[in-house]
Automatic annotation (TrEMBL):
InterPro entries: BTB/POZ_dom, Dros_DevTransReg, SKP1/BTB/POZ_sf. PANTHER family: BTB DOMAIN TRANSCRIPTION FACTOR, FI07618P-RELATED. This is Protein bric-a-brac 2-like. It is found in: Nucleus. Residues 31-62 form the BTB domain. GO terms for cellular component: nucleus. Its main location: nucleus.
Length: 119
């Protein structure tokens, strides 16, 4: 005797999850990590940051700490992380200035890695 099966689905699942994570961060609920730069700090979720950045994920997994504090090299980087936390995975429109600054930052990091490897 076969039983009838029904499909249960959650309309707009992705939108609800993303909005929920953003709302939790904005209210400071369940935050478990702090990002800091140039005297500023923001509390974020390790889960969201680790999905957005393999570098931050490696830092989180390398320490046994319930609420790590990660110091970033600039407030610009801190602002990017805050945007990821509050808007992920929505799209983003940036002005030319921000794109050039991001490219410059990436270029600097590549040059630093090359210098380290050359030593």
């Amino acid at each position: 005797m076969s039983q009838t099966q029904m499909l249960l689905s959650w309309d707009e699942y992705q939108k609800n999850i993303c909005n929920g994570l953003s709302e939790l961060q904005q209210h400071g609920d369940f935050v478990d990590m702090t990002l800091a730069a140039d005297g500023h700090h923001v509390k974020v979720h390790q889960l969201v940051m680790s999905m957005a950045s393999p570098y931050i994920r490696a830092l989180i997994t390398s320490v046994n700490c319930p609420h790590p504090v990660i110091f970033l090299n600039s407030t610009y980087t801190l602002e990017k992380c805050l945007w990821i936390e509050t808007n992920w995975p929505k799209s983003l429109q940036l002005g030319r200035h921000y794109i050039l600054k991001a490219l410059e930052e990436c270029s600097n990091q590549i040059h630093q890695k090359q210098r380290i490897q050359a030593q």
